[in-house]
Design brief:
four-stranded antiparallel sheet, globular, six-stranded mixed sheet, alpha/beta, 12 strands
Length: 284
């Protein structure tokens, strides 16, 4: 008896012996945090800010990180941004290891970071100009994002003429206009009053639904984390590590009235319990 060896590359819908074999596609995470840890060295010794932590973020996913003060939330974000080096592990974006800052990551900070000498339109298009994007395309993108964030008519205003919420809208528009692979947000609404913060959450969701960018968002606010996210990662008290991942299955698009629903309240109760447990540890 003679056997003939046949080599065949199977795709996701291959017919073999008159039977269709469905092979699931392998989906690579947009962002991979692999055993990332951070130790800060001071004159008085070493402080473990972040224990080895691992998690993934899918393409187009909105992830919030929630935890008590000093748990390493912002440290994780700065490592992903390439602004801080980890002591262990690695970070992969689209399968490529991150070794420093880069234009593939957009960053929005809590503090206002607009260029005071540029008007709103020029702030939004600053990165595009550096990339050599032509004037017409810059104008079109600026018009799109000004409309998206609700600042039409403010093109020629300077940062000093804007409220805190308006400044953060411009910062979000500037980050999105550069078309990064992922948007990193470090408590961007933390300095805003409660009413403005609520409006900004809705503005951000509108922008996210338009762009479908992957977002990693740091917050102390439980309501904010639920309202925005597809998934909430809860951190332990320092030294920080991942305590629990909670998928948020609330319908989209989301409206402010959703915060008064029973389902929202159930998520809030669970998260508050987890955070309280860790916060108590940090003061013992």
């Amino acid at each position: 008896m003679v056997f003939k060896m046949v080599s065949q590359k199977l795709d996701t819908n291959t017919v073999l012996n008159n039977k269709e074999i469905v092979i699931p596609k392998i989906i690579t995470p947009k962002l991979e945090i692999k055993d990332v840890g951070k130790i800060f060295k001071t004159k008085s010794g070493e402080t473990v800010a972040l224990e080895k932590t691992s998690f993934t973020v899918k393409d187009g996913e909105f992830v919030t990180i929630l935890g008590p003060s000093g748990c390493g939330k912002s440290t994780i974000l700065r490592i992903v941004a390439g602004l801080e080096e980890s002591n262990s592990g690695k970070v992969l974006l689209d399968g490529q290891e991150i070794n420093g800052p880069g234009p593939d990551r957009g960053m929005v900070f809590q503090s206002y970071t607009l260029f005071p000498w540029l008007n709103v339109k020029d702030n939004i298009t600053f990165g595009l100009k550096l990339k050599g994007v032509n004037q017409k395309e810059r104008d079109d993108l600026a018009r799109h994002y000004l409309q998206l964030i609700g600042l039409e008519g403010f093109e020629k205003h300077y940062p000093i003429q804007l409220s805190g919420g308006m400044k953060q809208r411009v910062a979000i528009a500037r980050a999105l206009a550069n078309d990064p692979k992922i948007l990193l947000m470090d408590e961007p609404f933390g300095a805003l009053d409660a009413q403005t913060r609520t409006i900004m959450q809705e503005v951000l969701l509108k922008a996210w639904e338009d762009s479908k960018k992957t977002i990693l968002f740091i917050t102390h606010d439980v309501d904010e984390s639920i309202f925005l996210a597809d998934s909430v990662y809860v951190m332990t008290a320092r030294p920080g590590r991942l305590k629990k991942k909670i998928p948020i299955t609330l319908d989209r698009p989301r409206e402010y009235s959703m915060k008064s629903t029973v389902e929202f309240g159930n998520y809030k109760e669970e998260l508050l319990s987890l955070i309280r447990e860790e916060s108590l540890k940090s003061i013992k």
